[in-house]
Amino acid sequence: MAIKKTKRTVERGRIYITATFNNTLVAVTDEKGNPVVIGSAGMFGFAGTRKSTPYAAGTTTESTLKKAVINHGLLSADVFVKGIGPGREAALRAVKESAVEVTRLVDMTPIPHNGVRPPKVRRV
Fold first, then answer.
1. Whose CB among 17, 51, 68, 99 lies 3.0–4.6 Å from 28's, allowing a Cys bridge?
2. CATH at residue 41
3. pTM, whole model, 2 decimals?
4. How far apart are CA 36 and CA 27, in angstroms?
């Protein structure tokens, strides 16, 4: 017997935006971090180099948030941004223009403190 999935209502949540050089990923979760809605540029019809454009990032974020608001009742969220891809600013602009109220904005981009070990000296 199949277990019927119930539609969760999430009024407060988190929005995770990962902006890489090749794609933009958006994940909407509840306050504990359990995923509610996910979206990527490829899921909305963008392929190849078009996935890495700011337009694709804005469209992806807008559609994912619309799905979260309509299906799950999202009202306010904390936004966590990671990465330095071209779609970063466009995704943030789409969050700002949506119906979701942003309570805080956090940058989680990893920063190397020392980097990798340099290559050994070349002997010719």
1. 68
2. 3.30.420.80
3. 0.86
4. 8
